UniProtKB/TrEMBL annotation, chain A:
Stored Pfam families: ABC2_membrane_3
Membrane topology listed for this record: Multi-pass membrane protein
Protein name: Transport permease protein
Transmembrane as UniProt keyword: yes
Record's keyword terms, sorted: Cell membrane, Membrane, Transmembrane, Transmembrane helix, Transport
Cell compartment(s), UniProt: Cell inner membrane; Cell membrane
Lineage: Bacteria, Pseudomonadati, Pseudomonadota, Alphaproteobacteria, Rhodobacterales
Automatic annotation (TrEMBL), chain B:
Tree of life domain: Bacteria
Organism for this UniProt entry: Halocynthiibacter halioticoli
Domain ABC transporter stretches: 6-235
Pfam families: ABC_tran (PF00005)
Name of the featured protein: ABC transporter ATP-binding protein
Keyword Nucleotide-binding tagged: yes
GO molecular function, one term: ATP binding
PROSITE patterns according to UniProt: ABC_TRANSPORTER_1 (PS00211), ABC_TRANSPORTER_2 (PS50893)
Keywords: ATP-binding, Nucleotide-binding
Keyword Nucleotide-binding appears in the UniProt entry: yes
Amino acid sequence: MISPRRIAAVLKKELLQLRRDRMTFAMVIMIPLIQLMLFGYAINTNLRHVPVALVDQAETELSRTLAQIVQATQVVEFTEVFATPQEAEIAITEARVRAALIIPRDVDNRFARSPAIGLGLPNATDQTSSRPVAHWIVDGSDTMVASAIKSLRAMPLTEMMRLPPNRLVPTFEVTLYFNPEQRSAVNIVPGLVGVILTMTMILFTSAAIVRERERGNMEMLINTPVKSSEIMIGKIIPYIFAGLIQVAIILGLGHVLFDVPINGGLGALLVVTLLFIIASLSVGLVVSTLAKNQLQSMQMTVFILLPSILMSGFMFPFDGMPQPVQVIAQALPATHFMDMIRGVVLRDASLFEMREQILWMIGFTVFGLMAATLKFKKRLD
Amino acid sequence: MTDVVVSTRSLTRTFGEKTAVDNLDLEIQTGQIYGFLGPNGCGKTTTIRMLTGLLTPSSGEVTVLGKSMPQAAEPLKSQIGYMTQIFSYYRDLTVRENLKFAAEIYGIPARSVKGRIEELLHTYDLTTNVDQLCGSLSGGQRQKLSLAATVIHRPKLLFLDEPTSAVDPETRRTFWEQLFDLVDEGATMIVSTHFMDEAERCHKLAILQNGAKKADGSPRQLMDNLQADVVEIEGPELRTVKHQLDGKPKVLSTAQIGSRLRVLVDKSEPQPVEMLRALLNTFSDLTLTQQRPNLEDVFVSATREQKA
């Protein structure tokens, strides 16, 4: 029933239009390129050089050394110096600094009793009477900044006494697999594949079909023998290739610029990305049957894109989300794709290990295609 | 095959409360150009959409090329051509690319595609524009391309929805010549229009108003059967004359055409000129002459009955 020749005709027409539509063509290439650069360089979850203020009320040699070794961690940078905590508070409110370190007058005294100094085990009286050596006040509204400074809380001060570091035995030994240097790019770049594919695939397909309706071409098409499934297949195929080109750009450049490893096999990578591309395209088709014009299709794409960025595990860990949100996030193909692409690229997961996700993705696509075909009728009533 | 290409019996289509097409009976013979004449919103497009199987009738029957619609809509698509009101081929493709697309969509055998396109380019005088993007074609050229693409598969039945609303009179002339050539080759056409000169060229016409057929027949028949006489009035103060006559019994309509006022008087009045003269005795310098009715008069008198 389905005629390959008619599909080829639609496909050829679509390619001709794509070739002349410089903007879309440029978007296929430029979106992944620019976003990779932006996200790869810009997103950094390991905070460095947070601007903070220093209020040194002691002004002893010890307090100056303390400030120096705090700065030496590179987590913070003292950009302002104040005489009183009040001034520091104002500076935080005015967002000139994100936090302030207040070194109290009796810092030397506190210092001697601090367990962090590592002068052997403190005796019983010291244990009860010892107090923190200094005080951080932090603009806690940004949890990332706050936790970066909180990480300084138990900072060992052994260095100050010229004692060898690591005298303290940690409670746990931690070995970091797959990203031992804790570089954000390693996690971001594969995830970016999911975000960019979600955006471009849904937008391009929905816009491509809605455009036919907007420009009146659909009125002509429904009067020809071409079937709706033939129109859809013919329109989708060019974008499958566009999607693959984008994946190649992101992962290839990610590898070159950000040294993101590609540990998994290319076969598994191709299967996983193709599945996701087709799932996204089917979402695009559903959108196209609902949207009346290109603006609406754009709005609906954003509606799907935002949760795909924020809830899929691209930016924030999936495990941290409350149960109901996890259920919603599970309905997004991007969530499953994040798992799969990171699995293949970073952990060399095999297709068998990802069978559940793969089956889900196939199910989603079949459902989407069926919904779109049923909705997309050649009738007007 | 029978001589009747399209026939409908009490064809009705409602959209919610509104009846778009009301009990329409049509019979369109092969080799005819059949026109639907009516104002915007009179049900022309809805009727055509039911005839092509895009809309399901609320009630009534439609037979097209011997098959019942809308069940046979898909198989019939390759025997039907439909030219949309607004240019609906791709503006970002060239003339040749669009024709090629149409040829492939309609399943024209691969080896004859090239020859057919050349033939159409020649017939429709598009040879100089083959590689031009359709977005940059003039309205007339676009119209020619639309027609060429619509007839690429040599349809037996052609629907044209207000085909020449956007082109100049010269192009309209040649366009109609081409339609008659196609009829000569055996095609039947259904044309919707609200232009009198276009309607006048049809073999047969149906005047539609509010979804119902008000009159049908050949333009000649319609003019001969007009239930009114036409009187033209020449002279000064025509606007005042018009207001004087509007609403008077037996005066069906008045319309100013340049320096003349065209008045339709009901046929039941034996002396239309005398009657008008009596009505206008306060005016001086008026010349009244009886005229042959034209299609517009038919249209006006057919569509005004609704209000009465």
